[in-house]
Recover the amino acids of this structure.
């Protein structure tokens, strides 16, 4: 049996710029914080895995600390970040429910076909569980999403590029690593999957196209749709040669292949 593990943000939907960024800025406005992240600011912050972790960087700014009530102990700072993150998660899921971020090409097709063929399909993400569930449901519908286990948020103590979330998925789902393929969009995600001994297909997103994807089994612009947006091949070390859209046959062939041919 083959297993597919999808990242969420940038893979199921191009959520970072049109979903997470406005949700963060809405949170700053709600709490009266003297900060707004630009598209460029947020691109740099994406190197930090996890929303809470990105929010915690604000506590290095004395003006933000003052606006937040001057938390001084570690517990107080943790509580402040948790409150911000809770509000931000609700703002994000509201945007997803409103249909602001459509699914990326091929996501619904591949997940539906894989489940029909008896494959294991899961999602592993650094984002909060409710956010991931909202994106997954928006991408594939509630009935299909209910069949897909999600590993997200604080289920592991260390976020990507640490491999912990992929190790957890492999362990809990009893997956065979050489029969498992990860779909990621970022170098941090690729490092996490590779660290867990898993092959990775990268579908680049708006923020990640220029990152280093050395070690990926395939790098493409998207999964592609035969009758819609066709994929662009950016790196094909195994000479899979997808034309307009990836198929289950090609994905199964890539499982267990890590980087270029040897």
């Amino acid at each position: 049996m083959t297993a597919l593990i999808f990242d969420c943000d940038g893979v199921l939907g191009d959520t970072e710029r049109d979903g997470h960024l406005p949700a963060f800025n809405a949170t700053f406005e709600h709490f009266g914080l003297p900060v707004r992240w630009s598209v460029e600011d947020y691109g740099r912050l994406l190197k930090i895995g996890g929303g809470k972790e990105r929010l915690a960087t604000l506590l290095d700014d004395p003006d933000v600390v003052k606006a937040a009530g001057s938390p001084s102990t570690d517990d107080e700072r943790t509580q402040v970040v948790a409150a911000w993150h809770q509000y931000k998660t609700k703002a994000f899921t509201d945007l997803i429910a409103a249909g602001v971020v459509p699914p990326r090409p091929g996501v619904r097709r591949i997940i539906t076909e894989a489940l029909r063929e008896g494959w294991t399909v899961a999602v592993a993400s650094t984002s909060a569980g409710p956010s991931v569930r909202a994106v997954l449901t928006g991408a594939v519908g509630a009935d299909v999403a209910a069949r897909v286990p999600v590993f997200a948020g604080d289920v592991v103590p260390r976020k990507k590029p640490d491999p912990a979330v992929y190790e957890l998925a492999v362990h809990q789902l009893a997956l065979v690593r050489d029969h498992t393929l990860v779909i990621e969009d970022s170098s941090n995600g690729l490092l996490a999957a590779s660290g867990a001994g898993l092959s990775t297909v990268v579908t680049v997103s708006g923020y990640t196209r220029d990152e280093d994807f050395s070690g990926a089994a395939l790098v493409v612009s998207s999964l592609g749709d035969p009758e819609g947006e066709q994929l662009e091949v950016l790196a094909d070390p195994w000479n899979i040669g997808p034309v307009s859209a990836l198929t289950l046959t090609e994905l199964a062939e890539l499982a267990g292949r890590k980087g270029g041919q040897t």
